[in-house]
Fold these 3 entries.
Entry 1:
Amino acid sequence: MSSGGPWVAFDLDGTLTRSETLAHFLYHALGTRQASLLLLRSLPDLLAYGLHRQSNAETKERVLARCLGGRSYASVQAEGQHFAAQGMTPLLLPGVWQRFLAHRERGDRLVLVTATLGVYARPWALSVGFAQVIATELARDGEDRVTGKLAGANCFGPEKARRLREELGIEQLDYAYGNSRGDREMLQMARHPVCICKGNAFGRALPPLD
């Protein structure tokens, strides 16, 4: 991969993958029975978010506190690395994955910008050829245990564009791929913004690379 090519940004959930990855990670880390129970208890929070009565960050923190709060960060990180190696490939959307490979082949600099957790998004992304990863991170207490809070801001919406500018010094992307309102500001930074709707995610051709 060339270090001097143009920057191309990909969202993860619903863009490179067919669904949200966090629930899959929680099932992997906690087991089916425990994850199902804890996610069932999280339904009121998920409903509140769906009705725009609770923010993305607040909902995420409530779910993470319920599911991962009190666990050692090392154990969660280890589960993240295992999920990155074993659980991500079945979730990928073939058409968008092929576009990623095309960008990688031509030497573009690739950055994953995702609101999901860095404990699994980062090792997966670096293993497949992303040059940089910007993700949501877990806060830890003095005993290195996960609190359920986020370390820094939730990487969603305007935060994606802010972190691209602050961490990588990027003012313009060549291409950006997203699928939701959480990607709007990142897409606005791109010469070629590509929205992955159900049509092009599940078979319709993406616009050709220039």
Entry 2:
Amino acid sequence: MTDGGIELAIRLTPSAAADRIDGPVTDHSGQSRLKIRVRAVAENNRANRAVEALVAKRLKIAKSLVRVTSGATCRNKILRIDHDPEDLSGRLVRLIGEEGG
């Protein structure tokens, strides 16, 4: 958590069959990430914009509050979500429970 928002580590799969949030995974370095798939291709920032829109929609916040801040050209990314951290924590827990099973 940071002041006025959170940073979320994700593992993005572009060109997927459907837009979905699969749930938490642990990468090869032992870091937990949220696995997300989007239909958009990984060119011209399309997949990054798609993941921002998907996360915003699922959290029921404005798209402008979600942005990729690290890893723009790789699968492992950091999303910055500008919103009340306590509210976001609750929303993320519910989201992972609903979609990540």
Entry 3:
Amino acid sequence: MMKLSKGTFRHGRERGMFAGILALPVAIFVFAFAPQDGSFALSLQNALGPNLGTGYWVNVWATVIALLIATLAAYVLLGAERKAQSYITWGGLALLALFLFNSFDLSYDYIMRKLPFLLWRGAVTTLYVSAISIILAFVFALSGAIAKMSGIGILEGVGGFYTSYFRGVPLLVQLFLIYMGLPQIGYIVQPLPAAITALSLVYGAYMTEIFRSGIESIHPGQWEAADALGLTRMRTFRKVILPQALRVIIPPTGNQFIAMLKDSSLVSVVGVWDIMFIARTTGRSDYKTLEMLITASIVYWILSIILEIIQRHIENYYGKSQKR
């Protein structure tokens, strides 16, 4: 069995074989999606010179050319170091995604006119809602975890019901219940508070199990040592247990925040002016729905990348004690 140490293929035969395997999906993609109206043939003829014809044979020639180019590129890439391979591959796939977006014949002038408003109003609202919701979800999750581990039957029942109900009912249903259901019993809730409440309650329920497992991962001997030093249970939890548990809690909590950022698009259905609401209403009114939806997807993507970088730095900070 071949060793893939350090992500580098030192032998030409191994590199050639894996390069062909990696290039095959590219060739299949080109064969499946190359247009048959002659435009792709003209592009290839301008780039390469030979008359490639039109229709079916365009796809055949394009597949062969794409396979050769992709194999050569993969062969060179496989000889690079692991980190370089990772960055180049990520960048290549990102360019491929942008190329696919570009194939929709978008109106870039329209996108550039609408982008500033989408960012300063929609993106700011999305981040604002998500940030407040994750803070409240953190409080709900910590309270739920403590309740479920309290050893008091009533609190365990409350914590169990909270996690069961809010994890078992879809976020969109919760949002409608808060925004449209509460007014029927006399409580009027504005769109923004309704959105924050629904997001924080639902994600707090998911995060409750993350907090519980993180706290329980700390050895019971930590509690016993703190008792021997005369520390109160609350002080032990704040100063000894929780700081150690955060190392386990932070990574999945960061993933929940990124998921919440994307799920916040659901709040557009109650009139919150987030990214999705502005993209949907603006695009529909101007008959440019595809332009706005693709722009919104890229904005969400960039925000998620930024959050991933922040999460990685936080994980490194709390994981310093594990590095030698």
